[in-house]
From TrEMBL:
Top-rank taxon, per record: Bacteria
Stated name of the protein: Peroxiredoxin
Domain Thioredoxin: 9-161
One protein family per Pfam: AhpC-TSA
CDD domains for this protein: PRX_like1
Ranges for region Disordered: 167-188
Protein source organism: Natronospira proteinivora
Length: 188
């Protein structure tokens, strides 16, 4: 397990379009996932201990953000042949077990992860209503540890600000996400 951190936010970068299959049996395009006031796009997977540690908070924050016109979508881009625990059927089971009320999509070709510049799981991208990048940081400061009641909800608070103003926190106020590297398929 290689631990990586995300790069700084590339403010204003437009969200690349995609069409991917969801665990609910339908195809999802970026426009289908878009929220009226913002969109959280996250790269996650089933087996990563960093994702497992924050999964309940991801589900909570995604649900809470809906009330502010912010939708969420999760994309799984790992090589499922090398990591079968991240396979489509196991994605379906995780989404049901964890109570996902947002799309969970499979990026089998890994093209979407490359378009976004995703590097790890979890990797969070926060877009404003115009689908311009305003946040590239972590969920919160707890990482793989138990969250205390006074731990700020960094992604949530950033997305509330973006929903209200269209502008994310200053770069120095965005802390990179940390997690397992995306498991890229070996080529050639």
């Amino acid at each position: 397990m290689a631990r990586l951190e995300t790069p700084d936010c590339d403010f204003g970068r437009p969200a690349p379009d995609f069409t991917l299959p969801g665990v609910d049996g339908r195809e999802w395009a970026l426009e289908d996932c878009r929220g009226e006031n913002g969109t959280v796009l996250m790269f996650i997977c089933n087996h990563c201990p960093y994702v497992q540690a924050v999964l309940d908070r991801i589900v909570r924050d995604a649900r809470d953000l809906q009330a502010h016109g912010v939708n969420s979508v999760a994309i799984m881009s790992n090589d499922t042949e090398a990591y079968p625990e991240d396979g489509f059927d196991k994605m379906k089971a995780l989404a049901e077990e964890a109570g996902f009320d947002f799309p969970y999509l499979l990026d089998e070709s890994q093209d979407v992860a490359r378009l976004y510049g995703a590097v790890c799981t979890p990797d969070f991208f926060g877009f404003n209503a115009d689908l311009k990048l305003q946040y590239r940081g972590r969920l919160d400061a707890s990482g793989r540890h138990r969250r205390s009641d006074d731990t700020p909800r960094e992604l949530y608070e950033a997305m509330i600000r973006i929903a209200r103003t269209g502008i994310g926190p200053e770069p120095e106020d965005q802390t990179p996400s940390m997690g397992c590297s995306i498991k890229w398929r070996e080529t050639g």
